[in-house]
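Dear support,

I submitted the protein below through the web form. The confirmation email said the job was done, but the results page showed an empty box. After a refresh the structure appeared. I'm attaching both so you can tell me whether what I see now is the final result or a partial one.
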Amino acid sequence: MYDYIKGQLTKITAKYIVVEAGGLGYLISVANPYAYSGQLNQDLKVYLHQVIREDAHSLYGFKDEDEKALFLNLISVSGIGPTSALAIIAADDNAGLVRAIDEKNITYLTKFPKIGKKTAQQMVLDLEGKITSVGSKEPSQQAPLASSDNHALDEAMEAMEALGYKAKELKKIKTFFEGTNDTAENYIKQALKMLMK
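What the results page shows now:
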């Protein structure tokens, strides 16, 4: 089992990042790959959780131990797999998530992709009172990237599709952001906030 990896960030895609350490490139699925954009070709530390299945060995990465702890709590719930847990973490509203669980707000919880009423109820049952120490993180402030064809918005929509959001939801969001200029990371954060309202 791995706890973390230190190495150079060599690749960022909509679904994962690649960290090179000891001459090997580790493919790591993360909640918001574009949150790492400012660290491309730099050394970084990513906390890890390994999931071993019959057909795959997968690594899931996190910026800090709190995010990893939240992920582990989420995947302990019946009906929530690693991909769904990453989609929940990507919303970057950990305090809101904890509040929704403690207040039994099923409507809020079912706004996450692939989380139905039954799974939301199971989340409340399994996690109520267990994740109170996890706080909401402040979004990082980055200068917007100049892009004439809005490649950053396309990347953000691709990343959200990888998290399980439906094309219908993404089309509305893309239309809302057309004509704006921002980073893929910020588009994802803003879009997730819109979807959670």
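Response: this is the final, complete result; the empty box was a page-load delay. The two ends are 37 Å apart (CA to CA).
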